[in-house]
Each structure stands twice: as structure tokens, then as C-alpha cells.
Amino acid sequence: MHRLSTGLNRRAFIKGLGAGAATISFPILGELRGQAPARSVSSIKAIVFDVFGTIVDWRGSIIEEGAAWNKSRQLNVDWASFADRWRAGYGPAMNRVRTGELPWTRLDDLHRMILDQLLKEFKIEGLSEAEKDHWNRVWHRLKPWPDCVTGL
Predict the structure, then answer these.
(1) Cα–Cα distance between 84 and 81 in angstroms, integer?
(2) Nearest to 66 by CA among 91, 50, 85, 92
(3) What is the pLDDT of residues 68-85, one digit of tens each?
């Protein structure tokens, strides 16, 4: 039987693994409950993992699309900083939802709120609503890391 020498309880263990891990039956979780571990792979219903940043290159994808905009629109934007600032806005935006400052909000809408702030901050002007929407959906067009497609 596995023992957690850190005194970590099941709830803290699952919380530490992340939200998706709670849906997976890890043998150690059963053992933490005093149950015998499952040994058969036929009992596996799903394998769940976070693909963001692991499978896709979010930062490089945003920088690449931004660099194309620099050329086509004669912009001079530091897209690496832009990408980092956009991603950094996720935590504070989600916290606004968690604390009730904002109601439940789709991630696309949170990304758009952050984007609108960044467009002002980076002095990117003159975009149509369609162009802003297209730019916001860069999160839907993230490119995989080169070895991921084969690996999957």
C-alpha cells in the first residue's frame, strides 16, 4: 500500500493534481480510501489531460500571427510581450469570476476582455469588430508542438 509521508489527505492530493484529475481513477486514490487498487486497464473509462501548453505552443502561435500582422499592417508590436501579457491576464480574469465580480463567463469572452485592454495598452488601433474577433480566436488556432501529433 502506498503511503503519503507528507500527511497529505485525499482532498488535498486531488486538488493538487488539478481539476481534470478528479475524474480519473488513480490506484493511489483508492488506496488512500483504504480500497484495493484496480489492476485492470479494462476499467479505464477515460484518460484526461490538460493540452494547453503541453500539446500546443500558445506563445509561439500568438507571436507568429502577430508577426504576420506587423508586416501586413505596418505595426511595430512586441508580440512576445503581448502574448505573455494576454496569458497573464487569465488568472486575474478568472478570479473576477470566482469572487462573483463577474458572473460565469465563457473563456472566449474573458480572452476578449483581456484583448480589448491589450489593444489599448499596445496602441493597436483601427481594427474592425470582425478583426478583433478573429484575433481573439487565435486561442482556437494554436499550433501543436512538432512531436505531439505523432505522439498522440
Answers:
(1) 5
(2) 85
(3) 999 888 889 999 999 999
